[in-house]
Each structure stands twice: as C-alpha cells, then as structure tokens.
Amino acid sequence: MAPKFQHVEIVREDGIAWTYLNRPEKRNAMNPQLHIEMNQALDYLEADDETKVVVISGAGGNFSAGQDLKEYFRALDGDPAEGKRIWLAANNWQWNRLYMFNKPTIAMVHGYCVGGAFTHLLATDFVMTAEDATFSLSEVNWGILPGGMVSKALVDTVLHRHALYYACLGDPFDGKEAQRIGIANFAIPASDLKDETAKLAMRLMEKSPAALRATKQAIRQVRQMSMSQAEDYLQEKKNAIRAKDPDHSYESGISQFLDDKSYKPVYGAFKRQN
Ligand code: COA
Questions:
Q1: Among 19, 143, 190, 252, which residue has the least CB neighbours within 10 Å?
Q2: DSSP 3-state of 124
Q3: What is the pLDDT of residues 186-237, one digit of tens each?
Q4: Ligand 1 centroid – CA 27 distance (Å)
C-alpha cells in the first residue's frame, strides 16, 4: 500500500506511480506541509519495487499555482529559521531529488502551471502538456523574481531570449508554446493527455532500468563538465552499468543483434531477461 498523505496522492497502476499535488481548492499551490510530504513520497517511490516510472501532476485539473503566497511566503516572512527549513524541503524534492531520481520521471501538465511549479516541472526528465494548459512565470507581476531553482533551470532548458521574455514580462503561454520553446516534449489535446503520458511511461519501461538510469543521469551531469571530465565520467558510468546491471543489458543486447538476429537497436529495445 502506498502511503497516504494530506496534500499528496499516489496512485500506482501498471508500474506507473501517478503522483498528484493534492490541494485542488488552492489550485495545488504548494504550502509547507505539501513540501514535507513530497519529500516522503519521493523517498518511498524511489525504493518501491512496483514503481518503474513516476508521473508528477496535480489534482483537480491544474498542475500547480506555484508556492503558496499565504503559507509559504507571507506566513514564513517573519520566521527566518522555519523559512529556511521549508525552503530546503521545497528545493530538495523539487530539484535535488527529482533531478537525479533513480527512475524516469514525467511531468503531466494541465490547467495552470505557475511560478515555483517550474522548479519541479523542469527537474523532471520529460514534460507532457495539454495544448490548452496555461504556463506563467508570474513572479515579476507581484514583486519578486523566479527563485528556488526556476531561473537557473529555465536558462538551462530554453534559449536565453525565451527565458528573458517570459521571466521579465510574466505573460501566460499555452502548451503549444511550451513545446515550441523546449519546455515540453509534447503538447497534446487535453482529452488524450493521460493516455499519451501512460504510453511514454510504457515505452520507458521496455528499456533496461540500469541503462536508462545511467543515460539520464549522464545527460544531466555532462552539461556542467569540461570535455576531459565528461570523457572520464562517461567511461566510468558505462563500466558501472555493466558491473551492476541485473539484466546484463549489454551482453543480451549484443547477442540478440549479432547471434540471434532477433532485433535491431535502432528500432526498439532488446528483450530483457528480468
Ligand atoms: N498561493 C496561495 N493561494 C493561491 C495561490 C497561490 N499561489 N493560487 C491560488 N490560490 C488560492 C486563491 O487564493 C483562492 O483561494 P480562496 O478560494 O480561499 O479565495 C483559490 O486558490 C482559487 O484561486 P482563484 O484565483 O480563485 O482561481 P482561478 O482559477 O480563478 O485562478 C490562478 C487561478 C492560478 C490564475 C490564480 O489563482 C493566480 O494567479 N494565482 C497566483 C499564482 C502565482 O502567481 N503563483 C506564483 C507563486 S511562486
């Protein structure tokens, strides 16, 4: 049984853990309790054998209206110690935990995705959005800047001009625009969003978990490295897959291609042993 929370709901189906921020009456604005619970939820899901792919979304038709202006900002403004504790909890799950999560992660966006919600949006590996979702970097419109990790994650994801335009104007944009500027992988009619997200998750589950984990972590880590660091890191990461992969992916894949002639890597995943 997945744990129960006040502001987070986990529904596990066929290897997918649908993980919903669950404050629909507040458009899933993130308050301190929600941040504490999301840390617990991700700890659980990373260790859970039934969970192969984690989808992060929001209950009630919205992704998230960002940090809670009342409970995260105003209430903590006069309490620096508690403010720091909650800021660390928020950054931990929204960025650190998701960025290097051991399993593939997908953000499924519908309704509003605002402000601080961009941190976990951009930390996930893939973004599937409804065409009619509404994204907004609203911070400039109420006197702050895109904090948490939003500004940094944004410039790492989209072209500089797009980052400046949307952060400085705060203009809302839809899912199609999110796809055009590189925030989302696919913009989909809202009625098909969940099915298409599940299809992507199923395709990810066909891969060797060890090879997939190493690949996503390598793609993230090499961005910050020099050429020689990347060369060394990638060589060792490749060795690590072979040393620790219960699927013996490398040997299986090569053998199925060369000996059995049963598949071609360009067109799909090899047949896993586990
Ligand atoms: N923080 C705290 N409360 C929020 C919130 C937020 N970020 N976003 C929405 N809510 C609350 C509203 O205050 C309202 O509460 P109430 O019913 O007690 O009055 C409730 O959620 C519903 O919001 P409402 O504005 O009536 O819904 P809407 O569908 O008309 O508009 C938004 C949705 C997201 C466009 C609008 O609520 C909004 O602009 N929110 C602020 C988003 C923002 O700038 N976030 C950045 C934080 S980093």
A1: 143
A2: coil
A3: 999 999 999 999 999 999 999 999 999 999 999 999 999 999 999 999 999 9
A4: 6
